Amino acid sequence: MTRAALCLTMLLLGAGFAPGQPAELQLAITSPADGAEVGRELTVAGTSAGISTERILVFVFSPAADRWFFQGEATVDTDGAWQVNPVIVSDGALRSARITAEGVRIVATAIEEVPSGLSGVPAADFPPAGTLTQSPIVVVRRGE
Prior knowledge:
The protein is mostly beta strands. Helices cover 12% and strands 42% of the residues.
């Protein structure tokens, strides 16, 4: 390696670039749309980029429990499109005035390994340890 190539390599490594470094991780929910009215059960779908061996998980927030509830691991296509079905929009009852008033928050996270104890993650402990990135939160209204 020439001295110029070595200097350039050291400069790039110092700036945070590493050979084989993955592209920036991107994660988004495309369905349901923010503000949509949904039923009790739905499919959550989205797009991702730069996520290869990581897992995509979907969570729904329950205001009454102040916890994020794990809904499932996404099936990811080769183009980065993903989905989780079914996702349950519930606050522990078939119909909740609190859900209707506040809406339901849904988020997707990319994580290296799925930790145990995801049945209800306290809001203060969210996102779970090992989370690399998460989608913007989508807020939906629960319909009849």
